[in-house]
Design goal:
Elements: H1 2-30, H2 39-44, E1 49-54, E2 57-62, E3 69-70, H3 77-92, E4 93-96, E5 99-103, E6 109-114, H4 118-128
Antiparallel strand pairs: 1-2, 2-3, 4-5, 5-6
Length: 133
Amino acid sequence: MAQKEIFSKKIVLALGLLMVFLAIVAFIEGKPPYRDKRIYPIVRSFEPYTIEKSIGGLRILSKEDPKFKEEPDAVNFYKRLQELDRQWAGKHLRLRHDRLEILDDQGKVLKTIAFQNEKERHFVQDYYGVKPQ
């Protein structure tokens, strides 16, 4: 009888440790990527996507298309948002030397942001995938 108790305690402990490990991995995977505190909010105000809280979690909506609605799971939410941001940035962001230009659909410059340091420039290149011209 004592041997069965020890065996069952080991199983419970092993399952508990496994659950903690999986929770930590999910937390790390679902963590949003680094976003610059100055540049990201400025660019975000021009992007067509918004984040809405719902009962089931977070959803991505489009300001331009009322039919567009995505509800990725928690682990993939920020990855999907970054994919959408990158698609938009491919047409609407231009990196020129020490500044970032935000363009409209016709390629007209809406706003120019001067970089204050290299970290901001690297953020735009890494997060949005924009290459210098």
